[in-house]
Amino acid sequence: VSAAFWEHLRSLGLQDFPCGLGSWNKSRFDARTSPCGGQLRLEADPAGQEEAMPLGEENPEVLLELLSDPHSPWALPPDCSPQDQHLREMAVLAPELVRGSCIFQVLRSLRIVGKGVEEVDEGLLQFQQLEELILSANQISRITSANLPRTLKVLELCCNAVADLQELCTQPPPELQHLGLGYNRLCGPSQDTYLTADFWPNLVSLDLSFNNLMDLLELVSQLSSLQKLRILVLQGNPLALIHTYRGFLVDNLPKLSILDDIHIGPDERRRFHGLARQPELIRSEARVVVSIGEIKGVPDPSARQQLEVGSEAPVITYSYCVTYKF
């Protein structure tokens, strides 16, 4: 993660025009700058900055416009993150705050998506103010909680290869409110034991979609300890095929507000009331009915050729096998 972060910073050009310190803004800043996290002192009066600007220098408004104008050669792509835009604006207004180790005191959100990251290293501990860490679409198979900042409130690991939560739950961030583990390789029931309030006392949102969780009863017994849980996503797991899946969760988790991106209303709660006391209705099986609407490019086996009585013409029979893989 650290290597991907520094590579990303280099691509933003925070030390190059119109960002950073250079001949384009050198008179604006006092030679003595405050330590990391402090405010830089401006030499010129902001109200008269434009008049006092030396020849060859630009005022901050012009430099910021070069970053935001979509036709500017220094503008970021339209799909860039707000974090990237914020860093570049800061590099114009207070360049010393984004140089060297000072940047670790500034960032509250870190987004590294689709960069081939395989390891969450201890370099992350330098981010002492980090609250949001998004590492989606990488190649992370294991994550050590000791390398995560204790200030984290959001951890998103969607679309990775996480199969075991043991190391993540050794010293998890105590204030974490959202944990995203969708599209990973989690299997139950061995991983269900790590989804309790003992590890995540402040968890409000949990995404476990599209894994390989199968034991609904065991999973619910663990999730019921998460007293602050309000949002849960389980769609895409085999257990979601169980006939009483949604009703059983709604009745067992009375504080849940949203299940699989669908709001849980009072009518739904009344409809499923009492289902939690009938676990015998849950079967570890599911029936799938597949209806074939139309197949093109092959002869229709149901169309039989009408042959005259006594005809010796050969009869051709067609048969097809359609296979579905679940």
UniProtKB/TrEMBL annotation:
GO CC annotation terms, alphabetical: cytoplasm
Signal peptide residues on this chain, from the entry's feature table: none
InterPro entries to which the protein is assigned, alphabetical: Leu-rich_rpt, LRR_dom_sf
Alphabetized UniProt keyword annotations: Leucine-rich repeat, Repeat
Record's keyword annotation contains Cell membrane: no
Keyword DNA repair: no
Name of the molecule in the record: LRC43 protein
Organism domain of life: Eukaryota
